[in-house]
Amino acid sequence: LSSRLPNLDVLRKAEYLSLEFTHPWMSALPLQRMNGSI
After folding, report:
1. Residues 6+ apart with CB under 8 A from 12
2. CB-based contacts of 26, cutoff 8 Å, min separation 6
3. pLDDT greater than 60 at residue 27
């Protein structure tokens, strides 16, 4: 399980960065999803 956590963290960061790059005005949305919606 501990080996999976870094992979999930990297995926979430990549998704957040790609969303912020394409839609900077939506930066609050991925933050809310990372904080507890998932």
Report:
1. 34, 38
2. 19, 20
3. no
